[in-house]
Amino acid sequence: MTNVPEPLLKRGVTAMDNVQYPDQAVGEPFANDHKMSLRNVNVFYGDKQAIFDVNIDIARNEVIAMIGPSGCGKSTLLRSINRMNDTVEGCVVSGELTLDGEDIYTTKMDPVALRARVGMVFQKPNPFPKTIYDNVAYGPRLHGLASRRAELDEIVETSLTRAGLWNEVKDRLDQPGTGLSGGQQQRLCIARAIAISPEMILMDEPCSSLDPIATAKIEELIAELSQNYTIAIVTHSMQQAARVSHRTAYFHLGHLIEVNETEKVFTAPEHELTEAYITGRFG
Amino acid sequence: MDKLQLDQHISKQFNEDLEDIKTSMLEMGGLVEKQVGDAIKALEDADSGLAERVIEVESRIDDMEMDIDETCTTLIARRQPAASDLRLVMAVTKTIRDLERIGDEAQKVAKMAIKLSEEGVAPRGYTEVRHIGNCVRKMLNDSLDAFSRFDAEAAIATMKEDRQVDMDYKSALREMITYMMEDPRSISRSMNILWALKSLERVGDHAKNICEQVVYLVQGRDIRRKKQS
């Protein structure tokens, strides 16, 4: 058991001063049919430890939401899942992370191939400065997924259709992706992520720069995609977590506190830190 | 969590909003308790004036229910409460419904009091009214007390009293039927007492519902329709 560190108390967590972190996340962090499994995962940025001993499974075809106050490590953990942190200098990931039982941090694992299997959608839509078509076709070309133009056309159409964007852009595929609205750009990025047939999609606050209508479209899309993909989403919007996810994981200053069915987390959470956070008792 | 810490939100307004609905609900509870007490007294004393007052006050209880209900709806729309806050709002909306129905039952007892004062007192049954009346008043009082202190154990203990009330009601019913068979001329008056007893028994059921809401509020467990050991 670790005491809640001083800085948090100074931020006004007066009622929480006796709260202790659980040694292991409370609730149901494990799943029988898991796509991704994390065991004793620690992440360091230089001397600073960002993630402490996290154990969690992400089940096949589930949508898991990761919530927690800023700096709680949820994005760091998400980025460890497809080795995006490799590019961050001084970042060290320890512990065991397996995708379908395969360790993703061995030297045998090619990070580029891994990222094709575990795609990512970022907070800010970041289409390439290319045409809409090329944005989606980029990945399949890179990974040699299509041998003929017709095949590539089909991948582009299917991906854009699945991302709910096809009808809006089918007549202007040769126009720059950057010319689309924010919500369309984000759906373009999702189409780009699914064009290479990933097994899992990571979303790091995918709606934080979108208006409610664009957000609703993305959320609808998440529900549809979850039939074929495993999705982990980091979000600051608790209503969004409540709406889209099957399970919710609550992180607190690098510790995984609770993982439970979303319904349970938002009606009767087990841990008092989860309770305090989702009811707005500290920030 | 042992305490719900309603006053610990970052938003002071949210603290106040939640405290407000709880206070208003308890205020409504206080008034309903008094109504039940007055109705029983009116029946025992054949005091039609007091019974009339109970009937008048009933509309105030209805207004209070609508007011609190609206405040809860606004709070959900504006704050999207979660976890214990959500459970509090849900528990309050359900509890005020039970309180309103207890108010209705008190009104029914008051109406019987008026009838009895017009038709003449019933030959028997007042002891039963007093006894069951005291039991359900205590249950109601204890259930509201448990709510105000967020005390699930006290709520569970109070719930169990309902079984005794049901048994007492059944035995009172049997006795009243016996009297009516012995003296058919008293049937109409005895029936008035029976209706009042039935209403009081219902008050116990509603108090039990309130207790169930307290357990849901504090522990997040829905124990409705579950057998209590």
Mean pLDDT of chain A: 91
- Give me the CATH architecture of chain A, please: 3-Layer(aba) Sandwich
Q: State the share of residues found in helices of chain B, binned by percent.
A: over 70%
β-strand number of chain B:
0
Helix content of chain A: 25-40%
The count of helical stretches of chain A stands at 11
Coarse structural class of chain B: mainly alpha
Give a brief description.
By secondary structure, chain A is an alpha/beta fold.
Secondary structure blueprint with pairings:
The complex is a heterodimer of chains A (283) and B (229).
Chain A: H1 6-10, E1 26-27, E2 34-45, E3 48-59, E4 63-67, H2 74-81, E5 91-99, E6 102-103, H3 111-117, E7 118-121, H4 132-142, H5 149-162, H6 166-169, H7 182-194, E8 200-204, H8 212-225, E9 230-234, H9 238-244, E10 247-252, E11 255-261, H10 262-267, H11 272-278
Parallel strand pairs in A: 1-11, 4-9, 4-10, 7-8, 8-9
Antiparallel strand pairs in A: 2-3, 2-5, 5-6, 10-11
Helix pairs in contact in A: 4-5, 4-7, 5-7, 7-8
Chain B: H1 12-45, H2 48-79, H3 83-119, H4 126-148, H5 152-182, H6 187-219
Helix pairs in contact in B: 1-2, 1-3, 1-4, 2-3, 3-6, 4-5, 4-6, 5-6
Description:
The complex is a heterodimer of chains A (283) and B (229). By secondary structure, chain A is α/β, with parallel strands linked by helices. Chain A has a single domain (6-278), classed as 3-Layer(aba) Sandwich (Rossmann fold), CATH 3.40.50. Chain A contains eleven helices and eleven strands. A seven-stranded mixed beta sheet of chain A has the order 1-11-10-4-9-8-7, sandwiched between helices. Chain A has a four-stranded antiparallel beta sheet with strand order 3-2-5-6, with helices on one face. In chain A, helix 4 (132-142) crosses helix 5 (149-162), helix 4 (132-142) packs parallel to helix 7 (182-194) and helix 5 packs across helix 7 (182-194). Chain B has 229 residues and is mainly alpha-helical. Chain B has one domain: Up-down Bundle (Methane Monooxygenase Hydroxylase, Chain G, domain 1), CATH 1.20.58.220. Chain B is 83% helix and 0% strand. Chain B has helices at 12-45, 48-79, 83-119, 126-148, 152-182, 187-219. In chain B, helix 1 runs antiparallel to helix 2 (48-79) and helix 5 (152-182) packs antiparallel against helix 6. Chain B is elongated and about 65 Å long. Chain B starts with 11 loop residues before the first helix and ends in a 10-residue tail after the last helix. The chains are: A alpha/beta (283), B mainly alpha (229).
